[in-house]
Amino acid sequence: MLSLYRIRELVKSHPSFFEKKFTAGTRNLSLFSYHYAHTDNYRDKSEDLLQLRGITYDRDTGELAALPYHKFFNFGEMVTQFDVTEYVIFEKLDGSMVFPIPHDDTFSFATGKGLTEVAKVAQDFISDKPAYSQFINKCLDKEWTPIFEWCSAKMRVVLTYPEDRLVLTGIRKHKDGSYLTHSEMLEEAVGIDVVNILPVPKTSTTDWVSSVREIPNAEGFVCRKGNHFLKIKCDDYMKAHHSIDLLKSKNQILDLVLDGKVDDLKARMVTSTNSCLFR
């Protein structure tokens, strides 16, 4: 996998990405991710940037500490054609990605933004579920990062889950960045909630994608072929998520106004953009 030096060089030359320094126990860590995930951040640029989605290093030794998912895209954003019969179809859960970072003979959950409140709540969830800790420690001993989706009504994104769930969606090897297959995950994750897969569709890819778009009360699916992933999302979900994002944006702008920080924001933006955003 990529070295800490290489990752830092990428961040220096691509301002859409960041390094977050923090401490877990006695371990000094650096997590790398993106400020926003627009396709222009990746198009015609180094494929190494795809790894900046929570990848975490020991800042003192340069050792890779955690390797969650690489960045992948909705069908139609970067890839416009594929054969669904060549892929394994995973259920797409509407939660938050969390993964363990080892330190001091234990581990702490993190999200793509670090040791967040979401990660803390997910870790509290497994405090009385020893099968999770045993499984996670087994993975960490093998230098694998198990990747989970935290689904909770307390921290709802769009869909409502009647019960809290911490679902294993992937396991990634530090050595080469490859992912375990679904059958391999089932073998490793005894007593763990594992993401479902679907049978290979018998229709054409075009017809299958169209049928997925029309499914209600679901986010969609992730199509996986080795290390190549594609997201197919349902139209109703996309509309609901867009509305939530729009509301968040308006609330953020209101917060800036109330805090008297609009001028600070304007000073950091290109002049031609200011005129249309702040008139």
Describe this structure in words.
The protein is of the alpha+beta class and 279 residues long. Helices cover 30% and strands 27% of the residues. The protein contains eight helices and 13 strands. The protein has helices at residues 4-13, 117-125, 130-141, 182-188, 205-213, 235-258, 262-267, 271-277; strands spanning 17-24, 27-34, 55-58, 64-66, 73-74, 88-92, 96-103, 106-110, 144-151, 165-173, 197-198, 220-225, 228-233. A five-stranded mixed sheet has the order 5-13-12-6-11. A hairpin with a 2-residue loop joins strand 12 and strand 13 (228-233). The N and C termini lie far apart (47 Å). Mean pLDDT is 88; it is low at 261-279.
Task: Give a quick summary of the entry.
The protein has helices at residues 4-13, 117-125, 130-141, 182-188, 205-213, 235-258, 262-267, 271-277, and strands at 17-24, 27-34, 55-58, 64-66, 73-74, 88-92, 96-103, 106-110, 144-151, 165-173, 197-198, 220-225, 228-233.
